[in-house]
Design a protein that fits this description.
Order of helices and strands: HHHHHEEHHHHHH
Helix content: over 70%
Oligomer: single chain
Structural class: mainly alpha
Strand order of the largest sheet: 1-2
Radius of gyration: 24 Å
Distance between the termini: 70 Å
């Protein structure tokens, strides 16, 4: 029973690591990103890698510096922890090296795993892109860029209480670059919405736009 629990624990840890990676990438709607099929595939790949890593660890009897007998629970659970959290690290060993241009590229188990992980991650990104585009188009419809640029970002940031200073500075730099861009103002308004969604999420953007109301609407839409 204990052994089954350990294998399940390694699998769960691997799945949590994969889920945490996706959450860190898609901060605007982490729950939405995790519900997509590519995201489930991404988590399953990480889960499988952790189980395979635990099998590898136990096959070679790696103890990771734990001074205990082979049947000690301390050793076993250390193996579970390392395999569950650091599966990709365990698979970093290159089986062979190929010269590509002016650099050597190592090929091993992690290279093949990373191919599938990257493909799944990109598919999640594509799925989220359409949802984000549709949502921002609706939320920012009728919003005047010039009015919104001055009022919407500080209002959104004021609604948030725990945004790191670094994140706020990155947003300011992105908005300054957007403001200098020579593109249609309606497109700029949507891009403004996307930049804000990346930081504060869709719900906060909706709340801010609804709260500011006619103050950031174009004259035509206000009539």
């Amino acid at each position: 029973m204990m052994e089954i629990l350990q294998w399940l624990a390694a699998a769960v840890l691997g799945g949590l690591v994969g889920g945490a990676e996706l959450v860190s990438r898609y901060r605007d709607a982490p729950a939405g990103a995790l519900k997509t099929r590519p995201a489930i595939l991404y988590v399953c790949i990480n889960l499988t890698a952790s189980v395979a890593a635990l099998a590898l660890v136990r096959t070679f009897g790696w103890k990771f510096g734990v001074e205990a007998s082979d049947d000690s629970l301390a050793v076993e659970w250390t193996q579970v922890l390392v395999a569950g959290v650091g599966a990709m690290g365990l698979f970093r060993t290159s089986l062979f090296t190929v010269r590509a241009g002016d650099r050597d590229v190592g090929f091993g188990p992690s290279s093949f795993l990373q191919i599938f992980l990257t493909a799944a991650d990109r598919q999640v990104d594509r799925s989220r892109a359409q949802v984000r585009a549709d949502t921002v188009s609706i939320v920012m419809k009728g919003v005047a860029y010039e009015k919104a640029f001055a009022a919407l970002p500080p209002y959104c940031l004021a609604l948030m209480q725990n945004l790191p200073d670094e994140t706020q500075q990155q947003l300011r730099r992105a908005l300054e670059s957007l403001d200098r861009a020579d593109i249609d103002l309606e497109v700029k308004a949507r891009l403004l919405g996307l930049e804000l969604v990346n930081v504060v999420g869709v719900d906060v953007l909706k709340t801010a736009v609804n709260s500011l109301g006619e103050e950031i609407r174009s004259t035509a839409s206000a009539k």
